[in-house]
Design a protein that fits this description.
The structure is a single chain. Helices cover 67% and strands 0% of the residues. It is mainly α. The longest helix is centred in the C-terminal third of the chain and has 39 residues. It folds into two domains: 98 residues, no CATH class; 154 residues, no CATH class. Bound molecules: zinc ion (ZN). The site of zinc ion has 8 residues, from loops.
Length: 252
């Protein structure tokens, strides 16, 4: 889709603002704090952050990654989340154009960004994201927004969720219920073919990464590696190349 430089910049700014809100979710949701109030505070000195110190990306660069009051270092991850969200939104707009599918893809895939970072930090995938996107997958299929019809969404939900549930039971806790719910969500959103491909891609990436860490002796066999981020990366890959990958690797 053609996109003027002005609209690309506008989309990037919008994406960075959404990413800024995702940072609040990543930081506060696992603690059970309100994501609306109070406003942001410096994690070191507790000083409320003024709006002009809280402009996505720009403020971080302007303040050279430090708190304006106490000078404590601010994690570059805040900017990473903002930039990542901005690029994700741009990429989804480029892929789907201004279409019904863009509505489906944005509400399915963007919320998975904070989910990935919460899983990285705390080894949990909150239901808000897993069950939330699962319900959205079914709903959007009924509304005609998603690429699959309601029947395919429900079959996908049961097959993808059922498969990971089996793995979870057999691995006795090696895979969490959050992963199972997320797998069901992939099935509901993508249908079973692309959903299964997303799971296949994520297992492949997760296993490769795990083996590499063991070989490099960064982690032992018993260490936990969160699987959610790999699944979410797999979902992004399959939002763009799912059809091609499923034909290439799974033969359907
Ligand atoms: Zn401070």
């Amino acid at each position: 889709m053609y996109c003027s430089p002005e609209s690309a910049v506008a989309l990037f700014v919008l994406g960075a603002c959404i990413g800024s809100f995702f940072n609040v979710l990543i930081y506060r949701m696992p603690k059970g704090e309100s994501v609306v109030s109070p406003g942001s505070r410096c994690p070191s000195c507790g000083t409320p952050i003024k709006w002009y110190h809280n402009i996505p990306v720009v403020s971080y660069l302007f303040l050279k990654g430090r708190c304006a009051y106490c000078g404590a270092k601010i994690s570059p991850r805040y900017v990473l989340v903002e930039v990542l969200t901005a690029f994700a939104l741009l990429a989804l707009c480029a892929k789907f154009g201004l279409s019904k599918k863009l509505v489906w893809a944005t509400l399915f895939l963007l919320p998975l960004i904070p989910a990935a970072f919460i899983d990285l930090d705390h080894y949990i995938l909150p239901d808000t994201f897993t069950l939330g996107t699962l319900v959205w997958g079914v709903l959007s299929s009924f509304l005609g927004l998603s690429p699959v019809n309601p029947q395919d969404a429900l079959i996908g939900l049961l097959l993808c969720g059922g498969f990971f549930l089996l793995v979870a039971v057999l691995s006795r806790g090696g895979m969490g219920l959050g992963d199972v719910k997320l797998a069901a969500s992939f099935g509901a959103n993508f249908g079973w073919k692309v959903g299964a491909t997303a799971l296949f891609v994520s297992v492949f990436m997760g296993a490769s990464f795990g083996i590499a860490l063991i070989l490099l002796r960064k982690k032992g066999r018993k260490d936990k590696i969160p699987f959610g981020p790999f699944m979410i990366l797999g979902a992004y890959i399959c939002a763009f190349f799912g059809r091609e990958l499923s034909r290439l690797y799974l033969g359907f």
